[in-house]
């Protein structure tokens, strides 16, 4: 529309301010703010935008203590406010302390290219508040003393207490405190390696370390890890949950799990055929069954999906046999349209007569939710397609007729989701992602990694959403507990080691890791 290009969008985890919203947002606020005043025509600002977005992503969970924002001084409606705030060069970075008065024009600081140093600056700004001024939800960032911490040892409590013992110049403890800001069920404290009496009692000599006090009074000790490892460990403790999936829903979740299907313990490092079979059961008997006839593109998508599963499904003969028969039947039909009832008849009756059938009920194991309505089908759909991408890599000749197509599994998945997946909004998001990047997938390895990466993007978007199961909070996957070597840190920023991730996915979703059991 002739205006300057926008460098930031609503999708980015930051606040886009305007002339009218700057002051009401950053002054008298219960949180501190870091604002980048930029100009969308300035080349340096364009280059810097990726750093700023990465920073916003990195400290996304700190938002109860500090907000990250941008304001585009090249937008006509923002000319006056940029003048009022004396913005002469772009980008200019200013921070506003919590509860700052309306007259405050912010304090200028020099922003670094290193996310780690901006993070440290944020921590310094937060610590620079007096006790009364501190952002409402920001816990103390100062170290605790032995006298304050030692009485907690051996005590029963309704939460975990994580004591991070670190060297005085380390920021890890404060970063982990802020990473856990939105989580309940755990309190994080830091203590210093110079506190001899604490070290002697806790028997700690390696830094940083976490001394973790469990609610039942016992303790565990985790040594020398990076910020991401510590945060991930604490967030995934049983009974720790993201505050936005409220305490009420946590209670309901636990109560419901007792009154509905009995809970089955399962091993998170395994994949269960029960989930894969339940996915197919739900697809064939529920999701597809809402279409009374299949014709045109729908029929083609259905046929390609059934054929794909028949060739790649690793979970056992009866299902493969059923899918093969269904696929042969569909391929042999000269019809342009089929009533879905005919498919159901085949699945339900004919197959049963010949002793081949698909489990007739939903039995979630790895995909069970803490209450009805959570997890289940969408979880199993992801699982099924991860398994199929890995299986395609393990048996590349299974799909002979698709030679030359770099991502046949993803193409079928994309068309299935677009045509049949009941969650429309999910389908729209997935289609946008596929349209923008699927053509970059050139081989089977990239096919596995594309789906993993896409799934993680959805996890990040949904983290803390109401649909999140409090017992299975959305987080980057695999966690450090599942795959330590998948995680690295460079200049204080978390990085995936993609080779290790690929190896892990091949193992995790591979045929040998499939468990036929219905519980642990
Ligand atoms: P899920 O995200 O379903 O994951 C299932 C299991 O897969 C996990 O338990 C874990 O073992 C494993 N896993 C997790 N992450 C990865 C990864 N990156 N790579 C490999 N394995 C992994 N819901 C919405 O509200 N909005 C959406 O836009 C949306 N889009 C969706 C798009 C698709 C294609 C699908 C299949 C689902 C979508 N959903 C969406 C549903 C949502 O992603 C979850 O499936 C649902 O909330 C259930 O979550 P869950 O806790 O069972 O974990």
Descriptive account of the structure:
Belongs to the quiescin-sulfhydryl oxidase (QSOX) family. Its cofactor is FAD. It catalyses: 2 R'C(R)SH + O2 = R'C(R)S-S(R)CR' + H2O2. With 520 residues, this protein is an alpha/beta fold. The chain has three domains: 15-127, Glutaredoxin; 146-242, Glutaredoxin; 266-515, Four Helix Bundle (Hemerythrin (Met), subunit A) (Up-down Bundle). It is 42% helix and 14% strand. It has a five-stranded mixed β-sheet with strand order 1-3-2-4-5. The protein has a four-stranded mixed β-sheet with strand order 8-6-9-10, with helices on both faces. Strands 7-11 form a two-stranded antiparallel sheet. The longest helix is centred in the C-terminal third of the chain and has 19 residues, at 444-462. Flavin-adenine dinucleotide is lined by residues 367, 375, 378-379, 381-383, 386, 417, 423, 425-426, 429-430, 452, 455-456, 458-459, 462, 467, 469, 472, 477.
């Amino acid at each position: 529309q002739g205006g300057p290009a926008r460098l930031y969008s609503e999708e980015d985890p930051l606040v886009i301010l305007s002339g009218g919203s700057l002051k009401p947002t950053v002054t008298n606020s219960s949180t501190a703010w870091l604002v980048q005043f930029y100009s969308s025509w300035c080349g340096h600002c364009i280059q810097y935008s990726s750093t700023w977005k990465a920073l916003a992503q990195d400290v996304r969970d700190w938002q109860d203590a500090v907000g990250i924002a941008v304001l585009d001084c090249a937008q006509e409606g923002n000319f006056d406010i940029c003048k009022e705030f004396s913005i002469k060069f772009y980008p200019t970075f200013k921070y506003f302390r919590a509860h700052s008065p309306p007259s405050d024009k912010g304090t200028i600081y020099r922003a670094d290219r290193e996310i780690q140093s901006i993070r440290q600056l944020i921590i310094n700004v937060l610590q620079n508040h007096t006790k009364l001024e501190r952002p409402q939800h920001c816990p103390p960032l100062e170290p605790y003393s032995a006298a304050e911490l030692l009485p907690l040892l051996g005590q029963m409590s309704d939460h975990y207490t994580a004591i991070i013992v670190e060297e005085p110049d380390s920021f890890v403890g404060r970063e982990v405190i802020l990473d856990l800001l939105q989580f309940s069920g755990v309190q994080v404290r830091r203590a210093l390696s110079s506190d001899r009496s604490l070290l002697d009692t806790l028997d700690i000599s390696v830094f940083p370390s976490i001394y973790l006090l469990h609610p039942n009074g016992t303790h565990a000790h985790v040594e020398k890890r990076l910020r991401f490892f510590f945060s991930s460990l604490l967030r995934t403790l049983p009974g720790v949950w993201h505050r936005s999936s409220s305490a009420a829903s946590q209670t309901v979740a636990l109560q419901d799990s007792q009154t509905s299907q009995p809970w089955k313990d399962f091993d998170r490092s395994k994949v269960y055929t029960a989930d894969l079979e339940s996915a197919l059961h739900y697809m064939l008997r529920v999701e597809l069954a809402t279409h009374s006839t299949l014709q045109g593109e729908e029929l083609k998508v259905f046929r390609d999906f059934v054929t794909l599963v028949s060739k790649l499904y690793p979970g056992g003969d009866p299902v493969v046999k059923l899918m093969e028969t269904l696929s042969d039947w569909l391929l042999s039909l000269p019809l342009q349209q089929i009533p879905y009832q005919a498919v159901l008849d085949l699945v339900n009756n004919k197959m049963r007569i010949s002793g081949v059938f698909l489990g007739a009920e939903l039995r979630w194991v790895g995909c069970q939710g803490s209450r009805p309505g959570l997890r289940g089908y969408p979880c199993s759909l992801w699982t099924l397609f991860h398994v199929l991408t890995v299986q395609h890599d393990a048996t590349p000749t299974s799909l002979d007729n698709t030679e030359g197509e770099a991502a046949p599994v993803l193409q079928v998945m994309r068309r299935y989701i677009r045509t049949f997946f009941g969650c429309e909004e999910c389908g729209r998001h997935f289609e946008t992602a596929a349209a923008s990047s699927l053509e970059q997938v050139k081989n089977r390895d990239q096919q596995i990694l594309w789906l993993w990466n896409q799934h993680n993007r959805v996890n990040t978007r949904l983290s803390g959403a109401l649909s999140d199961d409090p017992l299975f909070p959305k987080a980057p996957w695999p966690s450090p507990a599942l795959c330590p070597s998948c995680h690295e840190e460079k200049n204080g920023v978390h990085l995936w080691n993609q080779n290790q991730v690929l190896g892990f996915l091949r193992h995790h979703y591979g045929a040998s890791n499939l468990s036929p059991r219905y519980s642990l």
